[in-house]
Amino acid sequence: MLNTTTSPPCPLCSNPKSSHYYSDQFREYRHCPVCDLVFAHPESHLSRDEEFKRYEFHENNLEDPRYRSFLQKMSDPMLHRIPAKSRGLDFGSGPGPLLKLMFEEQGHPMSHYDSFYALGQEVFNEQYAFITATEVVEHLHKPLVELDRLWSCLHPGGYLGIMTSLHLPESNFRTWHYIKDETHVVFFAPQTMGWLAKRWGASLEIISDSVIIFQKGSQE
Fold first, then answer.
1. Structural domain that includes position 80
2. Which CATH number fits the domain that encloses residue 138?
3. What are phi and psi of 120, to 5 degrees?
4. Deepest of 28, 34, 59, 171, by most Cβ within 10 A of its Cβ?
5. Around 206, how many Cα atoms within 13 Å sit in the side-chain half-sphere?
6. Which pTM value belongs to this model?
7. H or E element in which residue 163 lies
8. What is the pLDDT of residues 161-176, one digit of tens each?
């Protein structure tokens, strides 16, 4: 077990009083009572080089129908909400931006960004009708910084779609597959998404235990 020496603040809401939640042989996990986030102790985070090596093992093949089917969990509900020819951003697109391709097939031009594979910061100078963040928020060392930045890039009335496996009260954290990936460092609960919605003044739809859609107010 990691021998941690500090009690870190919550990386999402900055509450200074996180509490011990669970430990395994590699990491200690902390819990925030304010926003209900569970997070890996920062002392256990992988280096950027180590993270990249893990990502290189991921198999995200643009021609894989199973990968396309997986991404449809996000694309289908978003396509039902956005107007025709809406412009979007895929945040955390990975080496193969299949979700971008899927939206463009439906007539929605889309930019993409990834902190390892598509580093063009200019995408954050634009405004979008919708933004997707699919299987990426659980990797963020500074989740509030990144999520607030995405929110600021949305047009009034725009949508932010997040795909991440939610930590549910009835689930067994110890055996949960999501914590087995050491690049996963923050774990959102439904209440965490509610905290974000309140912060942003957003409407919130929890579509499933892994798909969440926020809508920005039309007057912003």
1. 19-215
2. 3.40.50.150
3. -65, 105
4. 28
5. 17
6. 0.94
7. strand 154-163
8. 999 999 998 889 999 9
